[in-house]
């Protein structure tokens, strides 16, 4: 029987052990998609206690707490921090089988040196030890990033954002990690949501000119893309609950935009036409600048309308969507490719059933002298489990080129989530080691070590073109 979470955790062969400890373990991290706050990074936010750094904003843990019958007051409510911590300490043991069990213990071990199995019996001791470290200095947001050997962070930023803190970080030579914005124009596409018209007003203010027509909207988006590029942005990001595609003209898209701006009803077909034309416009802009475009597909968001009204978005009430992907995605990518304007693109689906679809669609649009131009995105959100990561990597290996994969990301709001990169790297090495042990891959240490280090770091560095 192997001990729980020892140095060779998840590594089930001598080859896997060698690959991880010799090649993967000490590689730096590029976190090219996350939801960290640039202000908190710039200000080197300090944390009042372990609840603040470990549970605040982590809707993975919130969902588990709710599943364990914990009252909302002890999750997102006004209960005191110690009571919230105690609720989590009581919940962790029953998460066994969920990656949260292993992740929680990795976080305690890597950041606080706490190797005890958390439960109600030792909650007091863990609370005291972790808090003593957090309040003793060297545990601010920047410290946690540096401790995790993170070289590049790409946050998620609205086109109307001022990027004030990105600019300050760019000018701050005291912090070695590069913090860059990502361009996330979801609000420009969601023409049927109540947020659309207020957001247009925000964008107008940021762009410095009125937006009373579709042409003015496109002009504003282009100017903001140029601004983001000047601050170092190398990647865009789109949350597509479904992939839209409907043929249209700019004139028709302009008429639909005008209807929405006046508060008139926009049909689903009209929404699809507007989204299609706007996405194609944005893709062309990204391609001109050499950016990568990320498409996050098939999330069903804010399912619980009662709790959405109380807590707002991103609070743990989302799920997997199962909308059609193959036809509209192929049409969208082909329209860009036919105009010689297809940017580097990373395709994610929250529905793992779509992995073979995405992997084969990718193969139809590779080329242009760019290694891995089209990427099957890392196992995302509900899929970043042991099984989910292995399914994603095996699908990519079977249908595409695993060796060109840009690797793991955190997609997180927590400064403790970098342990997920360790988790991913151990699984990658175990998978490759298993192939070797079964005689399905050669025991070529140089080849395997290069593939591991490329997936851990080098491929992302080259793909996104981050400054060294």
Protein architecture, described:
The structure is a single chain. The chain has 468 residues and is α/β, with parallel strands linked by helices. The chain has 3 domains: 1-45 and 164-174 and 410-468, no CATH class; 48-134, Orthogonal Bundle (uronate isomerase, domain 2, chain A); 182-405, Metal-dependent hydrolases (TIM Barrel). It contains 20 helices and 9 strands. The strands form 3 sheets. A 4-stranded parallel beta sheet has the order 4-5-8-9, covered by helices on one side. A 3-stranded parallel beta sheet has the order 1-2-3. Helix 13 (250-261) crosses helix 14. The chain is globular. The two termini are 44 Å apart. The relative contact order is 0.14.
Strand order of the largest sheet: 4-5-8-9
**Strand coverage percent:** 5-15%
Question: Briefly, what CATH class of the largest domain?
Answer: Alpha Beta
Note the overall shape: globular
CATH architecture grouping of the largest domain: Alpha-Beta Barrel
How much helicity do the residues have? 40-55%
What are the salient characteristics of this protein?
single chain, 468 residues, TIM Barrel, 3 domains, 20 helices, 49% helix
